[in-house]
Amino acid sequence: MAKKEEQSEPQSLPSPRLLPWHSGAIAQLRQAWTANRLPHAILVQGAEGLGSESFAAWLAAAVLCEKSVDGALDVCGSCASCALIKAGSHPDLHWVAPEEEKTQLSVDQVRAACEKLSKTSFRQGYKVAIIEPAHQMTPGAANSVLKTLEEPSKGSLLVLLTSRPSGLLPTVRSRCQKLTITRPSTAEAMAWLQQESGKSVSPALLEFSGGAPLKALAYADGRFDALNEHMQKSLRALLAGDADVTQVAAEWEKDALIDRLVWLDLWLTSLARTAIAGTDDRVTFPGGPAHLPSPSRPLNISALYSMVDRTRALKAQLARTALQRELAMESWLIALLEALAPSRRPAARAS
Q1: pLDDT digits (tens, 9 = 90+) for 131-179
Q2: Residues 48-63: what's their mean pLDDT?
Q3: Residue 297 neighbours by CB distance under 10 Å
Q4: Same structural domain, 287 and 147
Q5: Contact at 8 Å (CB) between 14 and 53?
Q6: Angle of the 223-240 helix axis to the 325-340 helix axis, nearest 10
Q7: Domain boundary residue among 124, 155, 182?
Q8: Whole-angstrom distance between the N-terminal and C-terminal Cα of the chain?
Q9: 152 lies in the same domain as 290
């Protein structure tokens, strides 16, 4: 009896969705499509929280849509190709993302997608492979991509998504057409957030989210308010001597440590800037009301900016390596208290 051919499970893919700040990138693509000059490789670069994944899903759906063949680049939503994409089973669409509990894209994953691009299309149209996040490819995976970029097959489109273009090989970047998803203006982002959330949103939330509306929307359910309140409470207790670094580090390490470091980055930057301007009568979070008594004066501005650098370095380390998180935060808090200590003035000379 012949062995039954195994069928792959439908892929769970992001839903194709265009957002207002995608319009510039879409215009570029449509112009290239109309001129029959769509490149074989596109590097989509943009900060996290700008919807690069949904943008790439739209691009794949539009390129594969049967009504785009002789018309404008778009997604009709009703043809057989669009139905297959909606079901997650289009044979000419391959989406590569890190496997569960892994952060890197393996050479086997990427090589398999590149091999599919080199074969004949199942539906006599384009073949599309999307790799995200591209900066997390292993060296072997990046070399597989490079080979595909050097020898592209007809009717293939390779899309690389990244929020860190510098993390890609220069030879990979140079062989792709770059398409940048830009942040919307503050006014545009705030208007979109209010429409999507159905309520007024604090500018502090958008700043905390790095100007990325989708990230801000995810925290608009009360998570940011809770984080903001807890950070204020912790720092107030620490600066007043009602809590020690061990206690605070243990609390922060348990939950949302990366978010706390983002908050601290903005807080320290704001404190340093207001100290330079001479308006630092109270310590305040950007975009929010004053909330903490100001530390002793005068502030050491150089030490504050050193703490900003240290905060960013720690955030990057936590994302890449397995640190002793609680010990790392204890060390950071000790450095913070030293940075906020009064600057020593030179002793007066005896006459």
Answers
A1: 999 999 999 999 999 999 999 999 999 999 999 999 999 999 999 999 9
A2: 95
A3: 10
A4: no
A5: yes
A6: 60
A7: 182
A8: 107
A9: no
